[in-house]
Amino acid sequence: MGQRIHFVVDPQGWCCMGIIIFVWLYNTIFIPKVILFPHYEEGNISVVAVLCYYFCSLFCIASLFRASVADPGKLPENPKIPITELEHWELCNKCNMMRPKRSHHCSRCGHCVRRMDHHCPWINNCVGEDNHWLFLRLCFYTQIFSSYTLILDFCHYYYFLPLKKENWDVFVFRHELALLRISTFMGLIILGGISRLFYTQLMGIFTDTTSIEKMSNCCEDISRPRKPWEQTFSEVFGTHWKILWFIPFRQRQPLRVPYHFANHV
């Protein structure tokens, strides 16, 4: 099952995505040039450390682009509503279209999204039923990439042996300290923000509630799981195989669960 492309025209979202891409490019270019390659040439680190860094970088940017262009669960203009499910649909008072309960109308995207969690400007897209798993995977790989970068920044000064070769790029050599301080600052900011967001998302899956439902207080006892956590995670990632939940570059096969099974909005 292929993933449908979804593109949102939003200058604010483009700016937020541009900031994320800048941070990713900065660390992908300067960290190997300042730390990885020089220490690899002098035998302080192995080629595995270099390859792992680039794999983390690749998984991070791939997750960003997949989450930003994936259809979050946009409803078609004339949805075919099964007769058995008709009572579990409702009319949106903003776009005057029928939608399954737990859907929400996004004012930025201009349409309703199935089981919408929130609109994220950092991916310039909604987070809904069909791309929630991609958003979680983006948070996961971003934490790994930021943590790896911070570890390398720390080890460069306090653990690795001093570099003997100094005839490399003059600009990088003269501004090494400033470059690494910028990298550390950005890494701490992103790691702190993403970790908090990732925790919030995980708690939402555990309790089977979206961020919109939590803010609207429409669900009773939202802190109490209504399904086993394995089932809620399997529904989000589209598979019961836990090892596949964070495997990159795979396609999601949605589990067929009735819209009315869980809490309603």
From TrEMBL:
<keyword id="KW-0012">Acyltransferase</keyword>
<feature type="transmembrane region" description="Helical">
    <location>
        <begin position="179"/>
        <end position="199"/>
    </location>
</feature>
<keyword id="KW-0808">Transferase</keyword>
<dbReference type="GO" id="GO:0016020">
    <property type="term" value="C:membrane"/>
</dbReference>
<feature type="domain" description="Palmitoyltransferase DHHC">
    <location>
        <begin position="89"/>
        <end position="216"/>
    </location>
</feature>
<dbReference type="GO" id="GO:0019706">
    <property type="term" value="F:protein-cysteine S-palmitoyltransferase activity"/>
</dbReference>
<dbReference type="GO" id="GO:0006612">
    <property type="term" value="P:protein targeting to membrane"/>
</dbReference>
<dbReference type="InterPro" id="IPR039859">
    <property type="entry name" value="PFA4/ZDH16/20/ERF2-like"/>
</dbReference>
<dbReference type="Pfam" id="PF01529">
    <property type="entry name" value="DHHC"/>
</dbReference>
<keyword id="KW-1133">Transmembrane helix</keyword>
<keyword id="KW-0472">Membrane</keyword>
<protein>
    <recommendedName>
        <fullName>Palmitoyltransferase</fullName>
        <ecNumber>2.3.1.225</ecNumber>
    </recommendedName>
</protein>
<feature type="transmembrane region" description="Helical">
    <location>
        <begin position="12"/>
        <end position="31"/>
    </location>
</feature>
<feature type="transmembrane region" description="Helical">
    <location>
        <begin position="138"/>
        <end position="159"/>
    </location>
</feature>
<feature type="transmembrane region" description="Helical">
    <location>
        <begin position="43"/>
        <end position="65"/>
    </location>
</feature>
<dbReference type="GO" id="GO:0005794">
    <property type="term" value="C:Golgi apparatus"/>
</dbReference>
<dbReference type="InterPro" id="IPR001594">
    <property type="entry name" value="Palmitoyltrfase_DHHC"/>
</dbReference>
<dbReference type="GO" id="GO:0005783">
    <property type="term" value="C:endoplasmic reticulum"/>
</dbReference>
<comment type="similarity">
    <text>Belongs to the DHHC palmitoyltransferase family.</text>
</comment>
<keyword id="KW-0812">Transmembrane</keyword>
